Amino acid sequence: MTHEIEERKSKEMASIAREIKGLAPHIHSPVPNPAPLGLFAFGLTTALLQMKHTGLTGSAEDDMNGVEYLTWGFALFYGGLLQLVAGISEIKRNNIFGYTAFCSYGGFWMSLGTAEIVLLLVGNEEFAFNKKAIQAMLILMGIFTFILMICTIKMNKTISTLMFLLMMTFFLLAGGIFNKTVDKVAGWFGIATSAVAYWLGGAELVNDIIGGGDEIIPLGHWSGDKFTFTGGSHVPGRIHGVTHRTVLRESPYGPDDGNRNDDQPRPSLSPHRRISQPRIGPSPLIPASKDNNHEEKGQARAADLEANLEAEGSVHSGKQVN
Questions:
Q1: Helix, strand, coil distribution of the chain in percent, nearest 5
Q2: Fewest CB atoms within 10 Å of the CB: 1, 9, 255, 291?
Q3: Rounded CA gap, 33 and 17, in Å?
Q4: What distance in Å separates the CA atoms of residue 105 and residue 81, rounded to the nearest whole number?
Q5: Among candidates 120, 146, 123, 138, which has minimal Cα distance to 178?
Q6: CA–CA dist 140, 292 (Å, integer)
Q7: Is the dihedral of CA 171, 177, 179, 184 positive or negative?
């Protein structure tokens, strides 16, 4: 009798597990990868500003001022606002690295652009930024980027290269406040940073869309990279969920994506363990209807199952006593 009860429990739990799997895409719907948007926005705005520092668009004062005027407009929206949008989008993907990086650099560009535009609107040459304050700001951003670079050791070599070049750009720009030669070198480091950001953004698009998550464009992985086993390109936006993905696949309630190892033993329930009522309700993405009573049906079904199991257990115990 005990064996029959256990078998019935397993069948009922398997049925509930299938229902949960069916609701999973609606409860936790997939979101697009925001990393390419943030990387392209960052790369283009950075490259624009470095045209002034390298002198590629002219070394005359009017040429440099023209580059600055164009850059500050892009800094507010394309380089600033879009990076902020990309960073906020990383919240849904549970990616703390992408969230921190994109929001911080987006806020940096928006702050710098706003300050420069206000200075231009004032139109008074007596008002100017304190050069030492600018130098301190650049050094602090370089330290922040160094912290991010340490985190990329567990990601891939391309994102590590990007963070290293950006860190050097900040430090060299700080040194270039009082040295034109160092400032020009910083400009070329900034150009290299933009190139790597474009490569990374393009790799994300190609690997996601064409490769379906497989790494078509190589990004290079460190020997200690803990994300290589997934076969994906793990730049900001793709490292989320890796640590618990294996646990989900081994769970009877995990996603039914065809990668589950069915040879693994499924967890069994104790015969004395009570079955809690599942909170099964309609998905917020599915329009409500008059017949949409999933929560009531799920609770009623769980209650009936528990009552039947307890009744059968009581009958079995009575037979043993007799």
A1: 70, 0, 30
A2: 291
A3: 29
A4: 10
A5: 138
A6: 55
A7: positive
Residue 299 to residue 155: CA distance in whole angstroms: 44
The predicted model scores a pTM of: 0.67
> Position of tokens 């989900």?
248
pLDDT of residue 110: 96
Please provide the average confidence, as pLDDT, over all residues in the chain. Answer: 77
The count of C-alpha atoms lying within 13 angstroms of the C-alpha of 212, restricted to the half-sphere facing its C-beta, is 0
Q: How far apart are CA 175 and CA 107, in angstroms?
A: 23
**Residue predicted with more confidence, 267 or 225:** 225
Q: Which of 2, 42, 66, 78 is nearest to 237 (CA)?
A: 42
Match 């099964």 to its residue by tokens: 280
Maximal C-alpha separation, the chain: 104
Cα dihedral sign for 140, 141, 142, 148?
positive
Element containing residue 46 per DSSP (H, E): helix 35-54
What is the identity of the amino acid at 171? F
